[in-house]
Amino acid sequence: RFLKMDQKTTVTLLELAAKSLLNNEPAAIHALDEIPRDLFVPLFNAAFSGGHKTILKAMVKVWPFRCLHIGSLTTRESYYDILEAMIDGLQIL
């Protein structure tokens, strides 16, 4: 007998790892210097959708890419609160 899994509810290992890291804010912020570039976007998306403002602020400070596109992101919290945390992370000269 086979059990058919619903693909929409299957959580990936990457999603589980991101959630676990985001649940430990000090460890997440400390790990930003060690995280490979390929993992920044999925971690950023998870932090954004989870409303982790302090982690978002820290991620924006060390963002490894030239651009940070936020137009297609959605969140349950006030968009302005999340955006404010991200702007606080910008290093304006």
Automatic annotation (TrEMBL):
Protein name: Uncharacterized protein
GO CC term (a single one): cytoplasm
Domain of life: Eukaryota
Organism: Sousa chinensis
Keyword list, A-Z: Leucine-rich repeat, Repeat
